[in-house]
Amino acid sequence: MSNINRIVSKSRRQFLRNASVATIAATPIAALAESVIKFADGDGVTFADGSRPIVNDFPGKDDMILVHSRPPHLETQMKVFDNGLITPNENFFVRYHLADIPTSIDPDTYTINIKGLVNKQLALTLAELKEMDGVIEIVAVQQCAGNSRGYSSPRVFGAQLGNGAMGNAKFKGIPLKKVLELAGVKNGAKQVTFNGLDKPVLDTTPDFRKALDYDHVMTGEPMIVWEMNGEPLPFLNGYPIKLIVPGYYATYWVKHLSEIEVIDHIFNGFNAYFMTHAYRIPDNDCGCVELNSVPEKTRSITQLSVRSFITNVKSGDTLMVGKKTELKGIAFDGGSGIKSVEVSIDGGEHWLQTILSDDLGRFSFRGWMIAVTFEKKGRIQLMVRAVSHKGETQPIKATWDPNGYLRNAIEHTHVRIA
């Protein structure tokens, strides 16, 4: 471990010893010399050589890339995705928007309140949720809308993320539809809003609240979950219950879910900021605009775009000429499922069909592999692209919007053949 990593680790351990189990606040990292660590316009912490610190002392997390300390923002290392389709809880990325997060929660007294346009307002405990009929399990990808934003060119505002703000897990819970049926929804329902326990520090900051169309909720896809990969939800991933919306970007996956309200209108007002102003893209076919321009009209982010990655080879690796080499990786989309994945080993001139792994469900990562042989030495560019069952494919070049959302361009991996 380098001297800088030791300083960072020691400083954070000292801080957390003086805090309760889940208290995450500003660490002494910022006090280090700017020549060693730099803050990019408040977007995150980066070492002077361009790398980012790896930390392992946030509660329930191990060897995560530090993006922010307050509020907690941790990214998964790409090598984790090469170890299987299910992302371990201890390596699953973390993203909060508001710095006043809960520091301790008693699951025995925790309740979720259902109110608004319902026949009967409810305050359900965790035990009551678990006892309801219709408990199910589902494997689903959770991906931040700003995943890969750090590769935007020109640079855009926001956390400069690599490709690790995503994960795939097996969740256990109850469809939200079942809970609303228990409360009895009145005629005229248009949207359902959600709130968690994380709060803004200042009254001038809007709360983080999200909304889904009532018709989407009644498909049975959005769920209230309490288990992740066979264990209680990690604290920093929403313990004891969270809303998951399979096929939708993570901005809708509300942690520490505490309040559900059925409304007869489109969610608006001060606390609807993260629906009406944030997490929106240009309202056109590509969801993009010309470089450095501002869209005239926007729409809310919803479904995941189709994506694929090579996981067992990274840029800068050296591979052997004349030797059969296995390439493998993952692909996913917003819920239609992956139809095919192709790989190019000559910079996109020719494409080879890969073999898909077992299907864990249409909302899950889908694994793929292919064995290739490199015929000559030199530097080459590996590329991978996926096609979903609904016909969506990845663009050769990344589109651009002012927030760096929904990046899904074909990935390029530069390697040397020797």
| Rg (C-alpha, Å) | 22 Å
Distance between the termini: 30 Å
Q: Residue ranges: pLDDT <50 for 5 or more in a row?
A: 1-43
Number of strands: 27
Biggest β-sheet strands, sense, barrel? 5 strands, mixed
Number of helices: 5
Helix content: under 10%
Main β-sheet, spatial strand arrangement: 8-7-16-11-12
Structure description:
The structure is a single chain. This protein has 418 residues and is mostly beta strands. The radius of gyration is 22 Å and the shape is globular. It is 9% helix and 32% strand. A five-stranded mixed beta sheet has the order 8-7-16-11-12. The chain has helices at 3-17, 126-131, 176-183, 214-217, 273-276, and strands at 37-39, 45-47, 54-55, 64-68, 73-75, 94-95, 111-116, 122-125, 136-143, 166-175, 191-196, 209-213, 223-228, 231-232, 242-244, 257-263, 280-282, 298-300, 307-310, 318-319, 324-332, 338-344, 352-353, 355-356, 366-373, 378-388, 411-417. It contains five helices and 27 strands. The protein starts with a helix and ends with a strand. Mean pLDDT is 90; it is low at 1-43.
Which terms would index this structure?
single chain; 418 residues; mainly beta; 5-stranded mixed beta sheet; 5-stranded antiparallel beta sheet; 5 helices; 32% strand; globular; disordered N terminus
Please specify the SSE layout and strand pairing.
Elements: H1 3-17, E1 37-39, E2 45-47, E3 54-55, E4 64-68, E5 73-75, E6 94-95, E7 111-116, E8 122-125, H2 126-131, E9 136-143, E10 166-175, H3 176-183, E11 191-196, E12 209-213, H4 214-217, E13 223-228, E14 231-232, E15 242-244, E16 257-263, H5 273-276, E17 280-282, E18 298-300, E19 307-310, E20 318-319, E21 324-332, E22 338-344, E23 352-353, E24 355-356, E25 366-373, E26 378-388, E27 411-417
Parallel strand pairs: 7-16, 20-27
Antiparallel strand pairs: 1-2, 3-4, 4-5, 5-6, 7-8, 9-10, 10-13, 11-12, 11-16, 13-14, 13-15, 17-18, 19-21, 21-25, 22-23, 22-26, 24-25, 26-27
